[in-house]
Design goal:
alpha+beta; Alpha-D-Glucose-1,6-Bisphosphate, Chain A, domain 4; seven-stranded antiparallel sheet; 3 helices; globular
Length: about 140
């Protein structure tokens, strides 16, 4: 399952990259992320991906880093596996930030994937709006 969303942010690409490259900022723009601990290429994350279900611990590992243009993460909570790629491009107004998430969902039957995909896409769109608000109001 592949989900992709993007947003244009009126800030320099280096500034947007610095913010999204540090997962400890994730709780500020990803409301389902409750906490992030760690440094370097490995982080322990507590997130609550599904309403009315308990929070899950997740290992987040950076796989690729190409400042200030691209970051690739692998996120594994023991049930679902996401490969998340951030791509950043300069625009006349600032930065085009794109997030692409390739998901291997183990928690739900395949026939539920369209609903799951819609929900994840909605969450990503909300995250993009929040990221834009935070960075443009600095």
């Amino acid at each position: 399952m592949l989900i992709e969303r993007e947003v244009e942010i009126a800030r320099p690409v280096e500034e947007v990259f610095a913010f999204v490259a540090d997962p400890r900022n994730d709780p500020r723009w990803c409301r389902k992320v409750l906490s992030v601990e760690g440094s370097g290429d490995r982080f322990a994350v507590v997130h609550k991906p599904v309403p009315l279900r308990p929070a899950r611990r997740m290992e987040m590992r950076r796989i690729a880093l190409e400042p200030p243009r691209r970051i690739e993460w692998e996120q594994d909570d023991g049930t679902d596996l996401f490969r998340v790629t951030y791509e950043l491009d300069e625009t006349p107004a600032g930065t085009l930030f794109r997030q692409r998430s390739a998901a291997e969902i183990g928690a739900v039957p395949r026939m539920v994937y369209p609903v799951w995909r819609h929900g994840i896409g909605r969450d990503l769109a909300r995250q993009m709006r929040q990221l834009k608000r935070i960075l443009e109001n600095r």
